[in-house]
Design brief:
The complex is a heterodimer of chains A (398) and B (326).
Chain A: H1 2-24, H2 30-55, H3 57-66, H4 69-84, H5 96-127, H6 131-135, H7 149-158, H8 160-191, H9 197-209, H10 216-230, H11 246-253, H12 260-273, H13 276-284, H14 289-300, H15 302-318, H16 321-327, H17 337-344, H18 361-393
Helix pairs in contact in A: 5-18, 7-18, 8-11, 8-12, 8-15, 9-12, 13-14, 15-18, 17-18
Chain B: H1 12-45, E1 47-51, E2 56-60, H2 64-72, H3 74-106, H4 112-125, H5 128-134, H6 136-142, H7 157-165, H8 167-178, H9 180-185, H10 188-200, H11 203-211, H12 216-227, H13 229-245, H14 250-260, H15 269-294, H16 301-320
Antiparallel strand pairs in B: 1-2
Chain lengths: 398, 326
């Protein structure tokens, strides 16, 4: 019974509340207000019109008497200020300071962007220049008689297609191996609480800080002794392992490829973010560590695996230290595009030391552009993934 | 029950076994390709090394290599000096410029992605040989033949102003001006990292600062910079290492040519190793110094808390009549 009473009371209350606003709504008052408001505005305008001559009487008379430019200019400024005052108000969003600031920012960005790209723009223009245009000091950026001759010559000189194919497959292979090993290492650090964990992390950072050049000579010796070891004492006169891709592969398999430690740290930071509950659930269902690694961790980190692969690919592509010392010494052996850039300079006809000009600059820049062209195309295709990837993964993770 | 992100195992021994199973490839690689070569570099640096195709003979000769590198070969000392100068002048500029660009790109701006793409491009294409092609001066520095060029900045007003104040600063300014493109080419990853760091800052901090009446300038100095300071330390370390492994480093080519033989130097592994050891130590020192300068100091709040806690303890002890004596 009580409920019913309540409900009826509520209905009444609702009705009351519905009625109340209808009565008190100011909609009916609005048309009454408008005619009141309008004459006020008109009055104001009239007042202004009446006031203006009286206010500026002094200036006008002064102007008429003296007719000096300075007073006119002052008046003009005053008018202008009245009109544009609001743009100088800091409370206004479209004020002049933000506009100026924005212009400065854009100028800064454009100038910096130009400086960033200037070597490439320079090379691009030079690559179309025949030798006459390069020598000619009046030619600035735009060649007088553009040719494609530099490109065809550079392609022949570099053995472009072979080197390109070599670059692509070796970089992809090394990147894939490196990624797998780095993921394993990162998994161990991120998920296990083991003796000497801090030491291992410190060693990973140390192996990043030590420049490859410092430990280059003994590394070569290590490969020599590895080869001798596998030949069981029969020392051959010609070494087969150096000048092939095997040293690079071995280094990648052992997690010491190009910037491997950074890859480990990226993976480590990402794996830490995956909740441990998922692992626990998998363990309870009877999975072993390897299965957890593959089915839980790797499959969850697929989005960053692509980014990491791209980075590993590019770093391997651009790496020349291991390549030039271990896989392609003295211009022979396995050749990739970056090593071919170095070979270009030997093809020059001029010599700086004897005072003649190096006429080969056009061919050199054409070759260099050709060598970086695949990377630029790749970058244009996936640049969003690159930058967003690096922002998401947060290499630093501090 | 707090949620665990890192597993604290009860059976640490068993866990260690599994962990080290996963770590095997990396550990082997570290021992064979980093640790052993590092030790051998130190050994080589104290000996004369002659290598034939298959054999390496190592004969101890004391500190001859070091004395050769430091005293009879003036190029090395000069180049090390140039390297230190390069790091000292490049790294702060890299930090400042990348932070400014990151600040600008972090705000609302049309065409942000285009600029970001341009600024990140060098990261993609930078490689040792490309640097040698684009900045040939870097190689000439590497061979110890510093080319004296009259750069345009020497005629400018600012240069004279700085020069009248101090010659060292003037040299630094000139050096930075001459190598500005190289510096910019190393700012790619720092820019993206700084953007990342700025976006991670809690937005409540800005709001709190604004409510307290802070201007944008104050927010920059009191909120943004303290928050990205740890990141700056990491970026500094990264830049130092990047600069040292590229041929832009003046010492790089010297070590390389003396280890593997080249156009400008006869092959001398011992000497090269001695140089390499000193180079590595120098880099380590630079890294540690930059880290110590930039790493954010421990907040003093902790000390205050511990002090008050101690006082409270003393008070309670005194009340209990046990620790009245100081």
């Amino acid at each position: 019974m009580g409920k019913k009473k309540n409900s009826t009371n509520n209905v009444e209350a609702v009705e009351e509340t519905v009625k109340e606003p209808v009565i008190t709504e100011p909609v009916f008052d609005a048309p009454e207000l408008e005619p009141v408001a309008k004459p006020v505005v008109e009055k104001k305008v009239k007042e202004k019109k009446e006031k203006k001559p009286s206010d500026e009487n002094f200036f006008v008379t002064a102007c008429k008497k003296t007719k000096s430019g300075s007073v006119k200019a002052f008046q003009f400024c005053k008018k202008w200020w009245g009109k544009n005052k609001r743009y100088f108000d800091a409370r206004n969003k479209k004020n002049i300071y933000t506009v100026i600031g924005r212009i400065i920012v854009y100028v800064l960005l454009v100038v910096l962007g130009y400086i960033f790209l200037s070597p490439i723009i320079d090379m691009f223009c030079k690559s179309f220049m025949p030798t006459d245009d390069i020598i000619n000091p009046s030619v600035f950026y735009i060649p007088l008689s553009p040719t494609f001759g530099n490109y065809t010559y550079a392609m022949e000189l570099m053995g472009y297609t072979d080197a390109l194919w070599n670059s692509i497959w070796i970089s992809a292979l090394l990147a894939a191996i490196e990624m797998l090993v780095c993921a394993l290492t990162a998994y161990a650090i991120a998920r296990y609480d083991f003796y000497g964990k801090k030491v291992i992390i410190a060693l990973i950072i140390v192996s990043f800080i030590i420049p490859a050049i410092v430990i280059l000579a003994p590394r070569v010796d290590v490969f020599v002794s590895i080869e001798n070891f596998f030949k069981f004492g029969q020392q051959t006169t010609n070494l087969k392992m150096i000048n092939t891709i095997i040293p690079g592969l071995l280094m990648a398999i052992c997690g010491q490829g190009v910037f491997s430690s950074i890859l480990v740290l990226i993976f480590y930071n990402f794996f830490k973010q995956i909740p441990y509950d998922l692992d626990e659930a998998a363990y309870i269902d009877g999975a072993n560590s390897w299965q957890v690694f593959y089915h839980v961790i790797l499959k969850l980190s697929l989005p960053i695996i692509f980014t990491v692969f791209l980075f590993a690919f590019i770093w391997n592509w651009n790496d020349t230290t291991t390549l030039t010392t271990l896989t392609a010494t003295s211009g022979s052996g396995f050749q990739t595009l970056p090593t071919k850039i170095g070979a270009l300079s030997n093809a020059g006809t001029g010599n700086l030391s004897t005072g003649t000009i190096n006429l080969n600059e056009g061919i050199e820049s054409a070759g260099t552009l050709l060598a970086i062209l695949p990377l630029i195309i790749l970058y244009m295709l996936v640049q969003r993934r690159f930058i967003e990837g690096i922002e998401q993964t947060g290499i630093t993770g501090v | 029950m707090a949620r665990r992100t890192v597993f604290k195992s009860r059976n640490k021994g068993n866990d260690s076994k599994v962990a080290y199973l996963f770590l095997i490839p990396w550990l082997v690689g570290f021992l064979v390709f980093v640790f052993y070569p590092l030790i051998m570099t130190v050994v080589y640096s104290f000996s004369t090394v002659t290598t034939t195709v298959n054999e390496i003979s190592v004969v101890n000769n004391g500190i001859v290599n070091y004395s050769n590198a430091l005293f009879s070969n003036l190029d090395f000392v000069m180049n090390m000096g140039a390297f230190i100068g390069m790091e000292i002048s490049f790294v702060p500029v890299i930090l400042i410029i990348s932070f400014i660009i990151a600040l600008v790109l972090n705000g609302e701006l049309k065409g942000k992605t285009i600029f970001r793409t341009i600024f990140f491009l060098p990261v993609i294409i930078i490689s040792g040989t490309l640097i040698q092609k684009i900045f040939p001066d870097a190689i000439e520095l590497g061979n110890g033949q510093v080319v004296e060029q009259v750069s345009t900045i020497e005629q400018s007003f600012i240069y004279h102003m700085v020069a009248s104040f101090s010659d060292v600063f003037a040299d630094i300014v000139k050096y930075i001006y001459d190598n500005f493109v190289i510096i910019l080419w190393f700012t790619g990853i720092p820019i993206v990292l700084f953007i990342n760091g700025l976006q991670k800052i809690n937005k409540n901090l800005y709001e709190a600062a604004q409510i307290d009446g802070a201007t944008k300038w104050q927010i920059l100095w009191k909120v943004m910079i303290p928050n990205v300071r740890g990141l700056a330390a990491v970026i500094a370390v990264f830049s130092i290492v990047q600069l040292s492994i590229m041929p832009t480093s003046p010492v790089y080519d010297m070590i390389r040519s003396s280890i593997s033989g080249g156009a400008y130097a006869t092959k001398n592994v011992g000497l090269g190793s001695a140089m390499a050891v000193m180079y590595g130590l120098l880099i380590l020192v630079l890294v540690v110094i930059s880290y110590l300068i930039l790493i954010p100091k421990e907040p003093k709040v902790k000390e205050v808390i511990t002090k008050t806690q101690n006082e409270q303890l003393k008070i309670t002890l005194a009340r209990m009549g046990k620790g009245a004596a100081r």
